Every structure is written in structure tokens, then in C-alpha cells.
TrEMBL record:
This is Signal recognition particle protein. Its EC number is 3.6.5.4. The lineage of its organism: Bacteria, Pseudomonadati, Pseudomonadota, Alphaproteobacteria, Sphingomonadales. Involved in targeting and insertion of nascent membrane proteins into the cytoplasmic membrane. Binds to the hydrophobic signal sequence of the ribosome-nascent chain (RNC) as it emerges from the ribosomes. The SRP-RNC complex is then targeted to the cytoplasmic membrane where it interacts with the SRP receptor FtsY. Interaction with FtsY leads to the transfer of the RNC complex to the Sec translocase for insertion into the membrane, the hydrolysis of GTP by both Ffh and FtsY, and the dissociation of the SRP-FtsY complex into the individual components. GTP binds at residues 108-115, 191-195, 249-252. The chain holds residues 1 to 297 of 483 of the full protein. Belongs to the GTP-binding SRP family. SRP54 subfamily. Keywords: Cytoplasm, GTP-binding, Hydrolase, Nucleotide-binding, Ribonucleoprotein, RNA-binding, Signal recognition particle. Composed of three domains: the N-terminal N domain, which is responsible for interactions with the ribosome, the central G domain, which binds GTP, and the C-terminal M domain, which binds the RNA and the signal sequence of the RNC.
Length: 297
């Protein structure tokens, strides 16, 4: 994760720290290199530009340049701005503090890792939050999508809604809610249908399901490997449905990290979780300060 960016930044900052005194020109040159490194990591251009402007403004101040360890101070400023760009300190928590069942609606394009992530979250909610979970697949488009969730449910020992062939998504959502209430379920996870692209039919379905399910969380699952496309998909969804957060999958294979770095700044939505592998426990709360620490080494 973030390997290339991390290597590049380490080089720039080692050189800055290695020098005793710094002047404004030194800082500006270093920031030019940081800008290139961000763009090479596929960070959205306006995000990179704002980031550099914010760091430069703080770093060229006299109390930084005249301090005993100016290089160190600049790195600290970069770290703080990176944390801010990623959404502020600490992980954005799941909002489960509503009258049960708390509904988590999972949305996203086909192949993004939505069903796998639903099962990962079901497991996490059961094991880490100690809550009773139920999962239901509303995907009536893709053959065997509902069966896939049932199989994953067995693997993580989280109940899934029995499949009734021929039922439409909104009706499945209603049945899932009723079942969750009857069984005193704390958290109901709804795995909605994906599509190859964002289209009107998909958005209409998401809105209809959201109207029935009144979710506490609407989590968009996107593939971090798709870079800026992931950010664009998030923007499209967020224009139509009230997203409360994003889950970035395949972070384990993402050496560049552009989606993770731009998501919050472009969409205003927090990344709540990162998928870090195919195994059903390969999910982490996305913590901006920890991620910034990982990038800056
Ligand atoms: P869906 O169509 O969005 O429901 O996608 P699936 O949940 O079926 O996932 C598609 C593929 O991506 C599966 O082979 C998953 O194992 C894999 N996958 C999902 N999340 C991750 C992740 O975080 N890392 C990796 N390496 N693979 C993942």
C-alpha cells in the first residue's frame, strides 16, 4: 500500500532533514517534488494542488524556517495536512446507535467486492461489536448472487435471509426487516445489486430500497485499484443516494493509493473501511492518522 509514494516522500524528506538550515526556496522545491509524487500516485489534481498550497503556506513561516529543526517541522506539517486530507484523526465509526435493527445498506458496482465486504462486515459486527447480525442479498440480477451470500454467511457464521425465488429487491428488503425484528437482530446488512456501470435503473433501485429500509449507514464499496474511477463512481452515487461512507477494497494490491488519498477531499465522504485481502477477516477500520504514518514511514 502506498509503496511508491512512500518511497518518493521518504527521499524528499530525508534530504530536507539532512540540511541544517532551510530557506523558502528549499521548501518550495521540496513541495514541487511532493506534488509530482502525489500525481504519480494518481491523486486528483485539485486535491494535490490544495494540499501543496496548504503545506507551503504553513511551512514557509519564519517560526518554521528559523526553528532548530526546520526539516522536521516541515515533515510534521505534511503529516498533519495528510491526516486532514484523509478525513481527520481516527477512524470514522459505524453508526449503529439507532433503534434496532440498524440497517447497513451496501451499494456499488459489480465486481467491486460488495458481497465479500458484506460478509466481512457481518463477521466484524458479530465478533468485534458483539452484536447479532443478519445479512440479506437483494441482488436478483446476477445469477447465484443470493446463494453466494448464503455460502459466505455460513463461512462466517452469520445468518442470511432464506432465499425466496422471484421476489423483487424492495420486497426482499421488507421481508428482511420483518425477519430482523422478529429475531431481535441488532444489525441488518443489505447487499444490493451491482451493475457494470452507474445507470438510472441502478440508482432508482437504490433509492427505492433506501426508502423502505431507512438505513443508518449506506456504504459504497469501490475497488481502490480503479484509482480516480473509484472517486468518480463515489461522486455519482453520492449525488443520488445518501452515502454515509466508503469501503475501499483491494487495498492489498494498491501500490499507488490515489483513490484512498483523494476520496475524502473530492466526495466529502469518509472512508470507513479498507479491504485488505480475499479472506473474510481481511478488513480494517480506515484510520487517517495511521495511514499517514504508513505513507511517511
Ligand atoms: P461483487 O460483485 O461486488 O459482490 O464482488 P465480490 O464480493 O464477488 O468480489 C469479487 C472478487 O474480489 C472476489 O474474488 C473477492 O474475493 C475479491 N475481493 C473482494 N475484496 C477484496 C480485497 O479487499 N482484496 C482482494 N485481494 N480481493 C478482494
Amino acid at each position: 500500500m502506498f509503496d511508491t509514494l512512500s518511497d518518493r516522500l521518504t527521499g524528499v524528506f530525508d534530504r530536507l532533514r539532512g540540511r541544517g538550515a532551510l530557506n523558502e526556496q528549499d521548501v518550495r522545491e521540496a513541495m514541487r517534488e511532493v506534488r509530482v509524487a502525489l500525481l504519480e500516485a494518481d491523486v486528483a489534481l485539485p486535491v494535490a494542488r490544495d494540499f501543496i498550497a496548504a503545506v507551503t503556506e504553513k511551512a514557509v513561516g519564519q517560526n518554521v524556517l528559523r526553528s532548530v529543526t526546520p526539516g522536521q517541522q516541515v515533515v510534521k506539517i505534511v503529516n498533519d495536512e495528510l491526516v486532514a486530507m484523509l478525513g481527520g484523526e481516527g477512524a470514522a465509526p459505524l453508526n449503529l446507535d439507532v433503534r434496532p435493527p440498524a440497517v447497513i445498506m451496501m451499494v456499488g458496482l459489480q465486481g467491486s467486492g460488495k458481497t465479500t465486504t458484506t460478509a466481512k462486515l457481518g463477521k466484524l459486527i458479530k465478533e468485534k461489536h458483539g452484536k447479532k447480525a443478519l445479512m440479506a442479498s437483494l441482488d436478483v440480477n446476477r445469477p447465484a448472487a443470493q446463494e453466494q451470500l448464503a455460502v459466505l454467511g455460513e463461512q462466517v457464521s452469520v445468518a442470511t435471509l432464506p432465499i425466496v425465488q422471484g421476489q423483487q429487491p424492495v420486497d426482499i428488503a421488507r421481508r428482511a426487516l420483518e425477519s430482523a425484528k422478529l429475531q431481535a437482530v441488532d444489525v441488518l446488512l443489505l447487499d444490493t445489486a451491482g451493475r457494470l456501470h452507474v445507470d438510472e435503473a441502478l440508482m432508482a433501485e437504490m433509492k427505492a430500497v433506501a426508502a423502505v429500509a431507512t438505513p443508518a449507514e449506506v456504504l459504497l464499496v469501490v475497488d481502490s485499484l480503479t484509482g480516480q474511477d473509484a472517486v468518480n463512481v463515489a461522486q455519482s452515487f453520492s449525488d443520488e443516494v445518501p452515502l454515509t461512507g466508503v469501503v475501499l477494497t483491494r487495498m492489498d494490491g494498491d501500490a499507488r493509493g490515489g483513490a484512498a488519498l483523494s476520496m475524502r477531499a473530492v466526495t466529502g465522504k469518509p472512508i470507513k473501511f479498507a479491504g485488505t485481502g480475499e479472506k473474510l477477516d481481511a478488513i480494517e477500520a480506515f484510520s487517517p492518522d495511521r495511514v499517514a504514518g504508513r505513507i511517511l514511514g
